[in-house]
Each structure stands twice: as C-alpha cells, then as structure tokens.
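Dear H.,

Thanks for agreeing to be a second pair of eyes. The structure we're designing against is below in token form, covering all 615 positions.
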C-alpha cells in the first residue's frame, strides 16, 4: 500500500540531467510548495512475503516490512537550480542527494548506504570476545585434542565424515552481512569565463562482517566471520584554465585508508594447548599452536600531484601531455613473528636469533612514482598525418630492506633461510611510438609505425628488456561495397643484464628463461574483409595469425615457440526489417613448444640436475 502526496499537479521528476536541460516554453507549474520547492512526496507501507534464501533475495537491498519513502523536490529558474532526492529513509539502503547550481557556483552532496547480505542462515562455534578476537569452548577443544573416542572436531578421514562435528552443538546462528556508508560533496566555482576551481570529497565506511579464510596451513581449514571497521577518505582539488587555443589543469588527489581491526586472533579447533616442544612439521600435521594470528589490511595513504595540458598549433596540430607524481605510504604496526609461546622463548631464540625481535616495529613502506604521457598529433593536409606518443612510468620503491631470514610458518614451526631479505623491485618503463598515415587512394590509408619500449625491473633474471616493433596497416573504409583492414607487426625483444644467480637462488635451472622477459621475435598479422553487395546482405572474413620464437644464449628451458591462428567467416541476410538470418563458422588453433627437466636439486645423490637425459 502506498500513499502519494503531489505538491503540484503532475509529479516533477528531478535528476541532474533533466534539471540541467533546456527549459520548456511551457509556463512554470503553479501550486503549493514545501520550503519553496515543488515535487512529490511518496510514502507507503511495504509488506513482503518470501520463501528460501532471504539474504540472496535482498543481497544489496533492504526489503524489510515497514514504511516506504521517496521524495523528489526541486526548483528551476533562469538563475538557479535546486534538487533534493531522498529514498528509503532509515533503511540500510537509504540514499540522499542534494544539488545546487546558481551562477558561477555548483554544489552537490550525497549520502547513501549499500548493504551486502551474505547469508541469514549462518552459524559459528567461535565467539568474538573482543573485536577481532575469536574463542572456542575450551572443554570441547580439549576433547578434540585428546582424541576422545567418538569426538570429531574437523573430519580428517573418510570414516569420520559420517560423524557430525562436536562444534555443531555449540554453533550459534547469526546474520552475516556488511554495509558501506558513503558521504560525499563537491564544489565548483567559475572564477572567470576561462578559469575554474573544482573541489571534491567523499568518505566511505565499511562495517559489519565478512567471511574470511583463517586456516592453520594444511592441517585444518577454518572460515570465520571477521569484523569490518574501516574508512577511506578521498579528496581532490583542481584548478583549470582553458580557452579556444588550449587548456591547462593542475590538481591534487589524496586517499587515506584507516582500519580499526588491526589483526585477527582465533582459536585452533584441533588444539587446546600449544604443542611443546615445537614440531618442525607442525604446520602440516596438526602439532602446532593453540591460536593463530593474521594481520588485516593496514592503514595507508596515497597523494597525487598532476598537471595536464593541451595546446593547438597551426596546420591542424595539437600537443597534449599529462604528468603525475604519486607518493604511497604505509607505516602500520607489524605483528610479532608468532603468537605461539612454544616458539617465542629464549630457548628457540638461541637457535633462531632473528626471531627475538622484529627488524623494526612498523612497516616503513614507501613508494614514489612518476607517470607521464605526451602526444603530438599533426594533420597538415588530407594526404598525410603524424602521431607521436611518449609514455614514462617510474616506480621507485623506497621501503628499507626487511630481514626475514628467520621466520615462523603458520605459528607452528621456526625456519631459517638464506634468502629472507626483501627486495625493492623498482620499475622504469619508457615507450616511444611514431606512426605516419598516408592517404594515397580514395577511402584508403596506409599506416607505418615504429615503437620502442624500454623496460627495466629489479629482482628479475634480466634487468633490462627492449622491444623494437615495426608495424604496417592498410585500411579501406567508407566504400559502399568493400571494407578491408589489414595489419602486420614485427617485434624483436632483446634483454640485457642477465643474472644466472637470480635463477639459482630460486632453485631454478640456469637454462630457464621466463616467457615475459626472454629474447624473442614476434610476428603478428590480421585481416578483416567485409563485402556488402547490396543493402540486405553482407559477407565477412576475418583471419589472425601470430608466431613467437624465443631465443638467446643459454635458453634451454621454458617456452621456446608459440603459434596461433584464427579464421572466421560469416554472412547475414535481412530480407525484411523484422527478419535477420546469419551464420558464422570459426576455427582457432594454438600450438607451443616448451622444455623442462625432471631433476633433483644440486648436491643430491642422484646427479640429475644437469643430466640432459632428464629433459
């Protein structure tokens, strides 16, 4: 049942698009107003009957029985525009929106909620004693740990599958759902006809619970409903100047994330006490900790300063460019090496001294990035065109190295490694693209291009990869009967700074090359042919083919070559406007060749690591 109160004759639908459109020649409606605004107030009662999975039915909505509301009010004159929209007041999917536009000023604001309903049929034996800390019944855990006959915690053998888990008796039902509340506002002001200022802000907060896998390695898998309590604040400000000759915009953007749930602690359903002394295989056989701990998403921030410009030159020539500097930071508090007291003690520290304390208490993670793109486009006449593009991406990781050569596996077993120090993985990429267009026949153009791509990365077997690409394409467009598009690319990739030690440190064969950085020749071609003999029929033929040949000194294992072809032919007939019949046949073929070696690592008694018979 719904009752609608119309403030004026006929409902006034208020949206940004309709309010900003040109006004009609009809006279403005007259009648009573509410706070000087005209529109509709729509109230009613919603009653819903349903069976089955209620959470799936609602999913991103709130369809509880009760009051329904929808309000749309506004005012539009030659000097001013005001719009107010309200939906579902007080519910988990409520929404509010306000827009104001007068002269040089434009202001808008909104608030909305979006629920995510996972399940209303969920139950769990874990009890959240404090935010992010989950406990299980100590007596039941003891029975499970002692393997009391007839007691099954988590079934681990086929025979136990027929016995219900003892935790089922204490599992409590609850509704598993979360919600995102978003608040935002924007302000725009035209300082002059050519100069404008834009400021924006939005903040969204997530609350509730979500399903999360919290397992003890391979010995038992757990899924808990972990709490959500985080907020993201986004801000931006832009100053833009533009006229018929060009434009320039400078701006600042920022995003800040804060999470009030720093880490999750949960009881082990198979153990009531920590296994003592620790078992080196405890992470896999179940002889591990009584509790587990995992860090959640950390607090972090990102700030961007950018500049974008466009300038028009004579002879139909345009220059555009954008440059971004980004600073990303994360300095959240680190959780200890382990929550297991059977490991966090002086006896273990004597054997694994790196576990006595963390190298530092906070992450100190920092990345600076510089990104830019610049384009030069010229069309001096109808027969020739030139496109030049340059892109730069510089990803500079400034995070100090972290020594994790001593670490703990799943809170169960300490380990020592000779490769436990983190690396900074910097990336620098420069790409230059030059393409010339020649129009030598009616409706036909020839494109010839060259691309140089220089890619440097740390932490890979090749420190520098360079792609040299030559391409050609011909297009016949606009012809009444025939459309043809054909292209061919040839790319040569050459790597430098190869480090065999980086492969051997990872336990890999020295002759292995990864397909995304190995020396390679690539040829690719494509053809599209469309014949339209009349207005009601067309025939299409499409073909693509490519070949990759991997090469380079010492390249013995991994992908060596790759071939692919694709053919498609089809036709469609439309004898009338209401009838269309079509048929398509396609065939694709992929083939590749790669080598590997079945061998034991160096130092073993088998001596197979370099045995070619194992390839």
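And this is the sequence the design step returned. I haven't edited it by hand at all.
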């Amino acid at each position: 049942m719904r009752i609608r109160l119309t403030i004026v004759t006929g409902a006034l639908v208020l949206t940004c698009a309709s309010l900003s459109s040109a006004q009609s020649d009809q006279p403005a409606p007259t009648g009573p107003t509410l706070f000087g605004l005209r529109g509709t107030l729509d109230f009613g009662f919603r009653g819903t009957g349903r069976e089955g999975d209620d959470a799936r039915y609602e999913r991103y909505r709130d369809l509880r029985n009760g009051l329904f509301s929808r309000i749309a009010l506004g005012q539009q004159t030659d000097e001013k525009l005001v719009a107010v929209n309200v939906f579902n007041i007080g519910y988990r999917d409520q929404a509010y929106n306000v827009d104001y536009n007068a002269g040089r000023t434009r202001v808008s604001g909104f608030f909305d909620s979006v629920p995510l309903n996972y399940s209303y049929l969920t139950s769990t034996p874990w009890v959240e004693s404090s935010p992010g800390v989950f406990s299980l019944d100590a007596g039941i855990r003891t029975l499970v740990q002692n393997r009391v006959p007839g007691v099954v915690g988590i079934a681990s053998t086929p025979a136990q599958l027929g016995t219900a888990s003892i935790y089922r008796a204490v599992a409590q039902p609850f509704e598993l759902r979360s919600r995102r509340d978003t608040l935002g506002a924007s302000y725009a002001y035209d300082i002059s006809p050519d100069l404008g200022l834009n400021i924006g802000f939005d903040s969204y907060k997530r609350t509730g619970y979500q399903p999360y896998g919290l397992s003890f390695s391979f010995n038992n898998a757990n899924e808990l409903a972990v709490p959500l309590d985080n907020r993201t604040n986004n801000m931006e400000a832009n100053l833009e100047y533009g006229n018929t000759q060009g434009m320039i915009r400078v701006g600042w953007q920022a995003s800040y994330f804060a999470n009030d749930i720093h880490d999750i602690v949960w009881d082990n359903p198979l153990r009531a006490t920590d296994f003592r002394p620790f078992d080196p295989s405890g992470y896999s056989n179940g002889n591990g900790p009584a509790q587990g701990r995992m860090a959640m998403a950390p607090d972090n921030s990102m700030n961007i300063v950018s500049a974008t410009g466009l300038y028009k030159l004579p002879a139909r020539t345009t220059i555009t460019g954008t440059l971004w500097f980004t600073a990303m930071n994360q300095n959240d508090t680190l959780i200890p090496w382990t929550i297991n007291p059977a490991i966090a003690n002086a006896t273990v520290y004597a054997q694994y001294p790196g576990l006595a304390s963390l190298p530092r208490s906070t992450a100190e993670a920092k990345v600076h990035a510089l990104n830019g793109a610049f384009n030069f486009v010229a069309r001096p006449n109808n027969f020739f065109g030139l496109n030049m593009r340059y892109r730069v991406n510089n990803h500079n990781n400034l995070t100090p190295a972290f020594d994790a050569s001593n670490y703990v596996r799943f809170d169960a077993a300490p380990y020592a490694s000779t490769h436990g120090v983190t690396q900074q993985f910097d990336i620098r990429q420069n790409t230059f693209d030059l393409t010339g267009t020649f129009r030598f026949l009616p409706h036909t153009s020839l494109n010839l291009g060259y691309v140089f791509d220089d890619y440097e990365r740390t932490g890979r077997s090749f420190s520098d990869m360079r792609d040299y690409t030559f391409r050609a394409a011909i297009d016949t467009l606009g012809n009444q009967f025939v459309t043809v598009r054909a292209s061919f690319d040839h790319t040569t990739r050459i790597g430098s700074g190869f480090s065999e030690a980086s492969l051997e440190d990872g336990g890999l064969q020295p002759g292995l090359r990864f397909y995304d950085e190995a020396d390679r020749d690539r040829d690719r071609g494509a053809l599209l042919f469309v014949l339209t003999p009349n207005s009601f029929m067309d025939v299409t033929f499409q073909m693509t083919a490519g070949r990759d040949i991997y090469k380079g000194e010492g390249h013995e294992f991994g992908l060596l070559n790759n071939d692919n072809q694709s053919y498609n032919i089809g036709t469609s007939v439309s004898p009338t406007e209401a009838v269309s019949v079509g048929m398509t046949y396609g065939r694709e073929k992929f083939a590749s060749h790669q080598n590997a070696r079945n061998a034991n690592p160096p130092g073993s008694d088998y001596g197979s690591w370099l045995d070619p018979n194992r390839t």
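Two observations from my side: The longest helix spans residues 138-145. DSSP finds six helices and 28 strands in the chain.

Warmly,
E.
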